[in-house]
Amino acid sequence: MLLNAFIQVGVFSVLVTVISVPLGLYMARVFSGQRTFADPVLGPIERAIYRLCGVYPGVEMSWAEYAAAMLLFSLAGMLALYGLERLQQFLPLNPQGFGAVAPDLAFNTAASFTTNTNWQAYAGESSMSYLTQMAGLAFHNFVSAAAGIAAAIAIIRGFVRRSARTIGNFWVDLTRAVLWILLPLSLIGALVLVWQGVPQNFSPYVHAKTLEGGEQTIAQGPVASQEIIKELGTNGGGFFNANSAHPYENPTPLTNLLEMLAIFAIGAGLTHTFGKMAGDRRQGWALFSAMALLFAIGAAVTIWSEQRGNPNFARMGLDQSATAAQSGGNLEGKEVRFGIVDSALWATITTDTSCGAVNSMHDSYTPLGGFIPLIDMQIGEIIFGGVGSGLFGMLVMAVLAVFIAGLMVGRTPEYLGKKIEGREMKLAMLYVLIFPAVILLPAGAAMVTRAGLAGISNPGPHGFTQILYAFTQAGANNGSAFAGLNANAPFYNWTLAIGMLFGRFMMMIPALALAGSLAGKKAVPASAGTFPTNGPIFVVLLVGVIVIVAALTFFPADALGPIVEHLAMLRGKLY
Amino acid sequence: MRTLMTAVKMTIVLTILTGLAYPIVITGLCRAIFPRQAQGSLIMRNGQVVGSSLIGQKFVAAGYFHSRPSAAGDKGYDASASSGSNLGPTNKALIEAVKARLKGVLEENPGITASQVPIDLVTASGSGLDPEISPASALLQVARVAKARGLAEAQVRGLVEQSTRGRLLGILGEPGVNVLELNMALDRAAPLSRQARK
User: Fold this and answer.
1) For A527-540, what is each residue's pLDDT tens digit?
2) Nearest-CB residue to A333 (from B19, B57, B85)
3) Exposure of B106 by Cβ count < 10 A (0-12 exposed, 13-18 middle, 19+ buried)?
4) How far is residue B97's CA from residue B84's CA, in Å, rounded to a whole number?
5) Does A222 contact B at CB distance below 8 Å?
6) Chain A environment of B175 (Cβ under 8 Å)
């Protein structure tokens, strides 16, 4: 059993590494405006989009203009989704006749999908029409991911350019991310998913007469086209309530592998895009290695904890050890076809990144098994990360790491030949401080208000973890949940929506400002005193900084949730 | 202001491209290439839809293999309300539920002890619609099903083995038995009398 866990994780890791290199180099070509094999088909579409929208692709933007374009585009998309949700009962492709989504839920969902979070306080199959799913939610799956990639590319340019005033054109980066990367990969992936059994239709729900003579209503819809971009864009919003645990979203171990690869692919690839554009591929590999190391640790702990199972079950005489004919372990909230390994592996992958899709219910995980996804988000989703946001989060940590190294040797820190000075450090610290503020402050508020406490569904320390998890995922734009929390209430819909908006834009703007500031600097030649940022010592330092920052920030809160619950579970205490 | 106009136009153009054209193209392609899967892998019997090979169903008769516990909808296996239980590991409600399920399994399958009951048979799945049980859970039910149907245990075990799906390439996922397909195979081998259905 242990052997199979190693093989499955190993196969996945090798495939991610193998895919990430060509994908990353391809993305570097796409965003440097170099020729690619897809140009003859996509070039005319690209030019038509620019003509229709009045974009001048040759005109570059300063960081402030770039950020303004991104903000306005997000605002327009958010309003469009809100409108679609409120008016869906008058619009076509609504065979189940769903009514308008309530205002607080519609606002929460609009904020959620615009920010690439995809937190869902609704159940897809009982509230959203097919049109809302496609043109509202799946549209955001594409463009919020594309905006994230665009921001990452702009930030790479900031690090790489010398004495420059501009960091690219947002509209061009956005369009090219959709046309050259997300759409082609989604087309292929969706076909594979349908082949494996994911539905793709506009039919009304099917009424079946079961074998024992009962009635079963089976939800349908254009699932596959949305499923693939949900993973590829690290969005995570399920077509159905059960997300990728639903056999219609993720029917086989093969779809599970494909979807896990889709979650990591672009984030992993962007490290190589960064190395290529920086002119030193080893800089990309250094970031990749730091991410891979953290991923492996998290996956190992989660699989171990879930496989060990729940001692409360053992006390009833149940045997949770794995055999050839069953997976064993803590199977509450998990599917037979995924067992422990594929479920726990997915749980780490989905929170390493900002995806948040789930193929098992995190709320039912053992305390330590559920702790790892929480930590993954608290370290800022920089393990391959959200498409785009993961890379720039990691670059901010890299700036912090060279700063600390600089303090140790008493030299002005440098990264990629750029001096890191007061202004850069202030922006990096802003990024590091906003994050816990948008998580811990509202989580604390929820714990002392009646409306906040009313959401708890699992009593005891687990209930606190439910609330902490909800605000952590909002600030980190993840979208996964301890889903027992009754979050479709005005208190949570409004506070979490604000958390998601802050977590996205209040962090992207300092990152873009950092890029703008760095772009304007001259390069300083490397000297004997320069700390090399492309080797193993830097990787270790970087991982250390990431862990220490997260631990200092979040450990006190975490101790009250998963850690207390773990100790209680060992002693057989129930709540 | 110009940027705002561009933002609005981009929203419209990209909605048409990614929100309408893309899913419609996929739907058209799949209707031609994978018509069965695109429609939800539905299973017909005597001109009537009896379910989907991917969606689990509830079985209570002794002559059918039983699916896992389900938290989808009020009665379980509601395929328009997928859901896990979301009960935490130290929640009394979870422990009581598992205890009750274990008691049920032990009563329905005499001669079995708690340590022989596979964990998937007493825990609710993530979707509430898990179409599968583990091979161990199927084998545990063979004696009961064979008795209820008047079949030899060896024959029923043969049907279980035929419907067992191994790991993909011997590596990926976990082995499982599709309960609906197994029960349909049983019905073909020895139809259940109207009496025994209850």
Assistant:
1) 887 888 999 999 99
2) B85
3) middle
4) 13
5) yes
6) 324-325
